[in-house]
Amino acid sequence: MINYKTQNELGLMRQAGLALAAVVEDLKAAVQPGVRTREIDKLAQARIRSAGARPGFLGYHGYPNSICISINDEAVHGIPGPRKVVAGDIVSLDLGLVLDGFWADMGCTVPAGQASSEAQRLIRVTDECLQVALQHAQPGGRLGDISAAVQRHAEQNGFSVIRQFVGHGIGRQMHEAPQVPNFGRAGSGPELKPGMTLAIEPMVNQGAPEVYIKPDGWTVCTSDGLLSSYVEHTVAITAQGPQVLTALDAASSGRIAV
Ligand code: MF3
Ligand code: CO
Hints:
The chain is an alpha+beta fold and about 260 residues long. The chain is built from five helices and 15 strands. The strands form four sheets. A five-stranded antiparallel beta sheet has the order 8-7-9-14-15. Strands 1, 2, 4 and 5 form a four-stranded antiparallel beta sheet that branches. Strands 3-12-11 form a three-stranded antiparallel beta sheet, with no helix packed on it. Its EC number is 3.4.11.18. This is Methionine aminopeptidase.
């Protein structure tokens, strides 16, 4: 069942999203060669708490940290630890917080120092996948419009999308209906209606779409060992178009009508 949010609830979710966007901005700056991933986790937890929020991932289904950090062939759900970021790595940050009872979920992939041009292209195309997803997140459309747009953009650029993990509805729970796959058919799936709130998260592989989970039970890696990139925003469908609840400022939160 899809939980449609009221204007008041959307306002609370925007506050959560704004708080998270500010945290992510700080964390991006912390991704530098030599930093240990557990140091980024510590910073994430401190920043979330000082915003008056709760680190949502911590303890979620037993997850041990406040952030997922996934490097190079790690696609998503990497666990912070003693690993040091190396120049040229591409580093995905994925974190969520709960403020006033509502979740925000967001992530991005950034290079540490100078990454290869192919790695940079992968990150850019993944970011573009989220932009085309937003262009298709229109009331009156279908969820499959979003999914198909992401898949098409990734594949047109010679990349692939992960099938085993998907985006999701979000609200008082991190994971609500509906699932938001990064693949599918335009015109299929539930209708996009004002009040829907979706975590849209393109997960794009440099090579084949297959992934496996490491023995730690969390870290998702590409089966071919090639790079993977990811980006995520929490988005509301409004009568005027999509609103990016996790945008850093009002101007970029937009209500993009076509
Ligand atoms: N963004 C991820 C998701 O939507 C985060 C879940 S990781 C966990 O599924 F640690 F919280 F489980
Ligand atoms: Co998510």
